[in-house]
Amino acid sequence: EKPKLEKVKILVMKLNIAFFLLSASLQAAAAFPKLRPNRDLQVTCPQTIDDLDFPNIVHCSDGYIRMAVDATLEGTGCTRNGVLMQLGGSEDFSLAYANLRTTCRSTIEPCSQAEDLEATFPDIVNCGQNTIKQSIIGLIPDECTRGFDTEAVALAPDEYTVWKDGNEATSDARDYWMDTCESAITPCITDFAAFDAGFKTIERCEHTNILQHIEDNQEEGCARAPNQDAPLLAQKYWQAAHPGEEAPIFVWGGGVPERNAALYLQDICRSAITTCITDFAA
Fold this sequence. Notes:
Elements: H1 2-31, H2 62-71, H3 80-88, H4 93-107, H5 114-118, H6 129-139, H7 148-155, E1 160-162, E2 171-172, H8 173-184, H9 192-197, H10 207-217, H11 226-241, H12 261-272
Parallel strand pairs: 1-2
């Protein structure tokens, strides 16, 4: 009888332990409902493009798009690839990324205004990329997270997706802003007729004389040196001689005669300069 009694005691003890463990599990589940099946977690996954905050993204590249997705995933239990495919509208990652880049590009908002950048072009020193870069930097507010290159892309039309690269399949914002600048920049000489007439009485048609003639006719406050204004004047002369045609981009000096403003203005000068002797017969 004694062995049977011991077996019963052991069985009762095991049942008590099992009951205790079951009760503890139920209490833990009640105290921490988030540890139950994660049906509720799924609703916190990004549901729309708005969740990715594309207006404030740095750049619409795949890398920054992944970062935008990752920023929404913390603590949700969602996966990056699942969100990319859902919001990109395709199970093909290449197509999903392409769709997201297009949406991002049409949604991103610049930190500055394109009109403010364009307003600097008429009086800008030159339309080189470094000069335009400085103009963009001067417009970016301190709180903006973009550099000049990504801000330049955000300011440009949607088809421009990079500042510059060697890929012919992409359109460079650098080229867009340089072309826009070239079409807006104007010489510091506003009285072009007076400047042109001055070639008749210039001392000599040497480069130094031409540069001095330019400086003498520049408006007060002009930020350009005479050799920086000279290409714009050469372009103005060229356009007058070739109406309706696209003028070349002139530079002061250089090895391409057709674009050399020094040579072009020298020819203009030589065709206009006249002798100071009016009574040649005498």
